[in-house]
Design brief:
Helices cover about 35% and strands about 25% of the residues. The protein is an alpha/beta fold. It has a 6-stranded mixed sheet, with helices on both faces. It has a 4-stranded antiparallel sheet with strand order 2-1-4-5. Helix 6 (about 165-180) links the parallel strand 7 and strand 8 (about 185-190). The chain starts with a strand and ends in a 17-residue tail after the last helix. Bound molecules: adenosine-5'-triphosphate.
Length: about 250
């Protein structure tokens, strides 16, 4: 059963079409990478999924709730990690999480239990009392993912969550998030780094506002590599997009 569906969604900035009849359907317990070069429309799609933007063209459903008709119910099933960190650096990890839990309407006891469970899932339990300022970039990111799980969403959206992190931190985060998908969550992960994607992961390739493919990474790669398949799909007679790199190639 689909927990996430985008049906025939379009969005324009004035005369510039950023999304053009986009349709994506995903079920629970999957890790799906939204793969696209710069300017593909990934952030625009995320802004529509989180209702920062609205469109009258097409329909978005989260856990069966239409985001235009039942926004509160739809957003209640969504956990989001934005590209820009939004943590209070001078509060402890647990106080940051408790604050967010309060915003979600959870009682103190519930908030403590959920925070502890979420930090445990991200391997961050022993850092609960540390100030965020003292954490490295990878741990801060893991904490933001823990925070996004507190209200027990069905869908976790992450917008290029490993940008700027070193290789071990990126690997730890991608491992943790794959574990979350294995435990039943639908993970929708925007990236332009193909080495974050595993063979069995679902991949949606977005380019110039259009979905070019939705299949597993293994199917997409065929007998070659995922990078080659991605470049072939998105190049369409132009130079390969410069942003299609693995983390190593990107110097991370
Ligand atoms: N506020 C805006 N006004 C006009 N055009 C915009 C605006 N924001 C984005 N665009 C255009 O819409 C298209 C999609 O942009 P978007 O930021 O969604 O892509 P993206 O895949 O997230 O790119 P990146 O990986 O660089 O963040 C691009 O052509 C971009 O130039």
């Amino acid at each position: 059963m689909s927990v996430f569906s985008v049906e025939d969604v379009s969005y324009s900035y004035g005369s510039r079409k950023a999304l053009d009849h986009v349709s994506i359907e995903l079920g629970a317990g999957r890790f799906c990478a939204l793969l696209g070069p710069n300017g593909a429309g990934k952030s625009t799609l995320f802004n529509l999924l989180t209702r920062l933007f609205v469109t009258s063209e097409g329909r978005i459903r989260i856990a069966g709730h239409d985001i235009a008709r039942e926004p509160r119910q739809a957003l209640a099933r969504l956990g989001v990690v934005f590209q820009q960190p939004t943590l209070d650096l001078d509060m402890s990890v647990e106080r940051n999480l408790a604050y967010f839990a309060g915003l979600q309407g959870l009682s103190g006891k519930q908030a403590r239990m959920r925070s502890a469970a979420a930090l445990e899932r991200l391997g961050m339990a022993e850092r609960a009392r540390e100030k965020v300022r003292a954490l490295n970039g990878g741990h801060r990111r893991r904490m933001e993912i823990a925070r996004a799980l507190i209200h027990e969403p069905a869908v976790l959206l992450l917008d290029e969550p490993t940008v700027g992190l070193d290789a071990p931190s990126r690997a730890a985060i991608t491992d943790h998030v794959h574990d979350l998908a294995d435990s039943g969550l639908l993970v929708f992960w925007a990236t332009h780094l193909v080495d974050e994607i595993r063979e069995e992961d679902e991949v949606v390739v977005l380019n110039k506002g259009r979905v070019l493919a939705q299949e597993t990474a293994g199917q997409l790669a065929g007998s070659g590599s995922l990078t080659e398949a991605f470049v072939r799909l998105t190049a369409s007679g132009e130079a390969p997009p410069p942003s299609v790199l693995t983390g190593a190639e990107a110097g991370r």
